[in-house]
Amino acid sequence: MLMLKRFLILLLGSALLQNQAHAQGSLPAWKEGFWDIHFIETGAGNASFMVFPDGTTMLVDAGDLNKNLFDTKFFPLKSTPILPGRSKRPGQWISSYIKQVMPGNRKAGIDYALITHYHEDHYGQINRNSIEATNKAYQLSGLTDVDEELPISKLLDRGLDYPVDLRTYYSNNPTFSNYLKFIGHRIKNGLTHEALQAGSSKQICLLFNAKAFPGFVVRNIKSNNNVWSGEDEKTFQCFPDASMPKNDFNENPLSNAIKITYGKFSFYTGGDNTGYEGEAFPGRKNVEPAIAKAVGKITAMSLNHHGNRDANNDAFIKSLSPDVVVQQSWCSDQPGQDLAFRLVEKNTRDDSIAVFNTHMQQETQAYLGAWITKKFKSLHGHVVIRVTNQGNAYQIFVLDENKEKLEVVKTFGPYLTK
Length: 418
Ligand SMILES: [Zn+2]
Hints:
Blueprint: H1 2-24, E1 35-39, E2 47-51, E3 57-62, H2 67-73, H3 90-101, E4 110-114, H4 120-123, H5 143-149, E5 152-157, H6 166-169, H7 174-187, E6 192-195, E7 216-223, E8 226-228, E9 235-237, E10 257-262, E11 265-269, H8 288-295, E12 300-302, H9 314-320, E13 324-327, H10 337-344, E14 354-357, H11 362-368, H12 370-373, E15 382-388, E16 393-399, E17 408-416
Parallel strand pairs: 3-4, 4-5, 5-6, 11-12, 12-13, 13-14
Antiparallel strand pairs: 1-2, 1-15, 2-3, 7-8, 7-10, 8-9, 10-11, 15-16, 16-17
């Protein structure tokens, strides 16, 4: 009997310990004044979600790439498996994540959604078997999947007219056609749709308590070929319009880019903008010098083009001089080796960059070697940057991407913003 009692006490004790460990592992809730940037790892493309200091919310991209199609077409490249598993579609996983981190009074939907460009790993991929929305007006994947559960108020993209009329150019593209149907239907049901205006600092703003956070500004840096000049809201062109092919152009260098500042802390995200051009790749442009000029030094950034070899060139990284870099990756060639090597070198401030990768595949790790990978702060998992104290301090959390319920596995900081 005594033995049984002891055993029960032991069992109870271990259950309590487990509960405690679990409680320690949950992400402390967002509070007014916090700016949270969540990089959500689904294996299917980019998705980040932000809660601004007054509770305004914004989604940047919601990818859902068709893996079977990609892995067959681009063999031996390999995409990341869907995380945390196939029981939900990537867009549904994004919604599930957002619902767990949404401020208590903001559960009804998302204020802003920014689609950087029209690639599947950024806004979803539709085929004839894609499931229909409840309203039967369009199908669900990526962005539309998120909107189904968390209706978006304002949708921003790169517009429908550059470098040609995209309604005609993409008329045989089921994902783009579905996107137009989605916009058409949702505009009648509460959605505002606008093209991102490069140079503007008023298109995305704090909606609930802007007066309390005067140091918080969202500056639109680039859209299509237009980039902010750094003066008022004036823009200039990254490259001569005539040099962009009209028949076989590349979406990547047309990506939208924004910079968000909160006091001393600043953050850059710019989709799949590229920093390389060559004759073998018509339509690929080096737009990074123009972006770097507009952005200046920043605290944290999401790497352009998932950290691919054709982006984040040496001059770009030196110019932005980030303290923290997040690589949203989903493919075995991400990051490019040259970039990974440069990122873990000492930077121009003779300081190391803290690099976080949302999912680096085993094959990629084998190719890069331990001397590079061991210098990454994290090789997999959702990443959360939490900026506090009016931008003067920040913390970084890595969350387990294999679990539906969010759980912190690593915490970094708090750090004072330099
Ligand atoms: Zn991409």
